[in-house]
Amino acid sequence: VQLQASGGGLVQAGDSLRLSCAASGRTFSSSVMGWFRQTPGKEREFVAALSWRGYSTTYADFVKGRFTISRDNVRNTVYLQMNSLKPEDTAVYYCAADQRPWRTQTAQADFGSWGQGTQVTVSS
Fold first, then answer.
1. Contact in structure between 115 and 20 (CB atoms under 8 Å)
2. Which of 6-15, 19-28, 64-73 has the lowest mean pLDDT?
3. Dihedral sign for Cα atoms in the order 63, 105, 103, 97
4. Pick from 69, 81, 57, 71: nearest CA to 23
5. So what's the pLDDT on residue 1?
6. How far apart, in whole angstroms, are the C-alpha atoms of residue 57 and residue 31?
7. Contact 74, 54 (CB under 8 A)
8. 92 with 37: CB under 8 angstroms?
């Protein structure tokens, strides 16, 4: 599956932003989808993941209650709704796909397909 992330931008603290990740390929609807983020000089870190039907989700502790991952298997798109954004959420956000069954994937190595990243900048 090929992935294309979009929706990043410059916002102020407290604002909301929705990232989208469009997928091509027949395997999207059966893939576990995830979002990661990375800032310069740091390791890429897990943000959220979603099972292929959307019934199961998992989030990093630092986004619980603020971010929501969802998917539309008709549009082959996964979303990351980000509310109450903080300056520390500033990062390049990447979407990723794993074609194996749900097992609460949170590691980079769990995901075999990656999008190109979209920059999110939150000003204070």
1. no
2. 19-28
3. positive
4. 71
5. 84
6. 13
7. no
8. yes
Return all residues near 112 (Cβ < 8 A) that are at least 6 apart.
97, 98, 99
* Residue-wise DSSP of the chain: -EEEEE--EEEETT--EEEEEEEESTTGGGSEEEEEEE-TTS--EEEEEE-TTSS-EEE-GGGTTTEEEEEETTTTEEEEEE-S--GGG-EEEEEEEE-SPPS---SGGG--EE---EEEEEE-
Cα–Cα distance for residue pair 4/21, rounded to 1 Å = 5
pLDDT at residue 7 above 80? yes
- List the structure tokens of 121: 């900048």
Is the pLDDT reported for residue 66 higher than 80? yes
The two three-digit tokens of residue 124, written as one number = 């204070």
